[in-house]
Design a protein that fits this description.
With 101 residues, this protein is of the alpha/beta class. 41% of the residues lie in helices and 15% in strands. The chain has one domain. β1, α2 and β2 form a beta-alpha-beta unit.
Length: 101
């Protein structure tokens, strides 16, 4: 009795290469979607302890992206007026249990 051996054709190699290519494209596309979602969603609350950190947090805020900046103590503005850029959605809140900050 003669044993038959199945030989892979070039077509099956092409199918395998096409399938692997599609899988790589899908993986890259899904990674791009997740990365873009993180950029659009913005960051969580930003904790600041100094005037420098507060100015950096305000100046790096993107337009139309809500940001909550939490003041972790009293911050005195010694470098002049703090200018909030137009079009930004910034909420300042205190980390203190006291009524005023």
């Amino acid at each position: 009795m003669v044993k038959q051996v199945r030989v892979r054709s070039h077509k099956s190699r092409k199918d395998l290469l096409l399938t692997a290519s599609i899988m790589v494209i899908v993986l890259l596309a899904s990674s791009l979607i997740v990365f873009t979602w993180f950029l659009i969603a913005g960051k969580g609350p930003i904790h600041v302890k100094s005037e420098t950190e507060l100015r950096k947090a305000v100046n790096t805020t993107r337009i139309n992206k809500p940001v909550n900046i939490i003041l972790d103590g009293d911050i005195y503005l010694t470098e002049g007026t703090l200018i909030i850029p137009r079009g930004t959605d910034i909420t300042l809140s205190s980390n203190s249990t006291e009524e005023f900050f």
